[in-house]
Automatic annotation (TrEMBL):
Residue sites binding substrate per the record: N51, G52, G53, E64, N93, D94, T119, T120, S121, S124, Q174
Keywords tagged on the record: Carbohydrate metabolism, Cytoplasm, Isomerase, Metal-binding, Zinc
Quaternary structure and interacting proteins, as annotated: Homotetramer.
Cofactor: Zn(2+)
Molecular function GO labels: carbohydrate derivative binding; D-sedoheptulose 7-phosphate isomerase activity; zinc ion binding
Localisation: Cytoplasm
Cofactor info, note text: Binds 1 zinc ion per subunit.
The protein's annotated pathway: Carbohydrate biosynthesis; D-glycero-D-manno-heptose 7-phosphate biosynthesis; D-glycero-alpha-D-manno-heptose 7-phosphate and D-glycero-beta-D-manno-heptose 7-phosphate from sedoheptulose 7-phosphate: step 1/1
EC number: 5.3.1.28
Annotated GO biological process: carbohydrate metabolic process; D-glycero-D-manno-heptose 7-phosphate biosynthetic process
Catalytic activity reported: 2 D-sedoheptulose 7-phosphate = D-glycero-alpha-D-manno-heptose 7-phosphate + D-glycero-beta-D-manno-heptose 7-phosphate
Name this polypeptide is given: Phosphoheptose isomerase
Amino acid sequence: MNLHDRIHQHFAASRVAQQDTLDLLAGNIELAAQKLAACLLTDGKLLCCGNGGSAAEAQHLSSELLNRFERERPGLPAIALTCDSSTLTSIANDYSYDEVFAKQVRALGHGGDVLVVYTTSGNSRSILSAVTSAHDRDMSVVALSGKDGGPLAPLLRESDIEIRVPSESTARIQEVHLLVTHCLCDLVDQQLFGE
Ligand SMILES: O=C(CO)[C@@H](O)[C@H](O)[C@H](O)[C@H](O)COP(=O)(O)O
Ligand SMILES: [Zn+2]
């Protein structure tokens, strides 16, 4: 296939992944936005994490909340657990990489906070540990995932929300995660600050 055709193929596949996700998961996205707004309205905060491209997505969400999304409004409390290299390297060095987010969740998380995890596979052990720590702290979880949900899916509780993008492609899942993230930001602003 030539380069031009490959570009068309990428855009077409991304559109399909977006539409499939809308058809399947609009209700879950709405529920997740309601959970995040309820958390923020009761003085809770969001802790966000992911690996690789998903680390960038976690930081994208926290920065839209801490700073602003599309309108002028006060900053909202969200922390990306992916940013402090001293903390990340020391936890990985002294314990294991699997603990890099979980230890921060145990230190920073309180009941009523929400952990937002991004993982395209549901396989990343650092994410599984973070979810277990969040449950230990009486936090609930919003999981943006994909593929078959991996071992993350059965770990989630009834009160958690999974937004599992129906695709097998890491790149496509990440692209849809970003769109879902922007939806969540807009729906949070709408619930907290109105039109
Ligand atoms: O961005 C990409 C590929 O698009 C990669 O960096 C990818 O995020 C990394 O391989 C991650 O470690 C994958 O983790 P996960 O999504 O399976 O939890
Ligand atoms: Zn990527």
